[in-house]
Amino acid sequence: MTYPVLGEAAHALGVSASTLIDQLRRLERDVGAQLFHRANPASKPQQPTQRGTELLTAYAQSDLHRPDPASTPQPPPTELPEPLLRAVQGQTSGWTRLERFAVTMAHPTNDAAARTIGVTRATLTAQLHRLETDVGQQLYHRATAEGKPQRPTPPGTELLDLFAQPDIQALRAARARLPRRPTDHRTTQR
């Protein structure tokens, strides 16, 4: 509800608009009430309904969204290595893409990795492409028709090595959200 339209919220969360809409519909179904009014063409931003406002207030007053500082090791974002900071972009989905990249590099092809992860090859390929876009470098060499398995590039190997560090794994396990990196005009106009 901090964004004027669902598309902006979805982008900030690192998910597609259709995924966010499905999740919000499921939440409304679970709650049994409409939780927000969508933005309208007259430029009126989305707004929570009375029930949505009540739910947001209850959530803000609960400890559900506040991690226990003692159990959540979080190095300051400036201490994260730059490739990791670019990869996660302050999003839980960034951590998921990193995890999936690590799993993918343990398999000879994207097909094999997708089966292990439980997603389609197209979904996995799109997530890996998004990770490469966020990092700004090619992270792996694709498997070849001649049977040569996929393998990480030097930047991909560096990213995997950083990701495997115990303090980074602790942060990953906590699924910490880090502040977003400032973006330029090209990344905000998708």
Brief overview:
By secondary structure, this protein is mostly helical. It is 54% helix and 4% strand.
Topology of this protein?
Blueprint: H1 6-13, H2 17-31, E1 36-37, E2 47-48, H3 50-61, H4 82-88, H5 92-105, H6 110-117, H7 121-135, E3 140-141, E4 151-152, H8 154-163, H9 166-174, H10 185-188
Antiparallel strand pairs: 1-2, 3-4
CATH architecture of the largest domain: Orthogonal Bundle
**Number of domain modules:** 2
| Major sheet strand order | 1-2
Q: How many strand units? A: 4
Structure write-up:
- The protein is mainly alpha-helical.
- The chain has 2 domains: 6-61, Arc Repressor Mutant, subunit A, CATH 1.10.10.10; 77-188, Arc Repressor Mutant, subunit A (Orthogonal Bundle).
- It is built from 10 helices and 4 strands.
- The strands form 2 sheets. Strands 1-2 form a two-stranded antiparallel ribbon. Strands 3-4 form a two-stranded antiparallel sheet.
- α1 packs across α2, α4 (82-88) crosses α7 and α5 (92-105) packs across α6 (110-117).
- The longest helix has 15 residues, at 17-31.
- Residues 69-78 and 176-190 have low confidence and may be disordered.
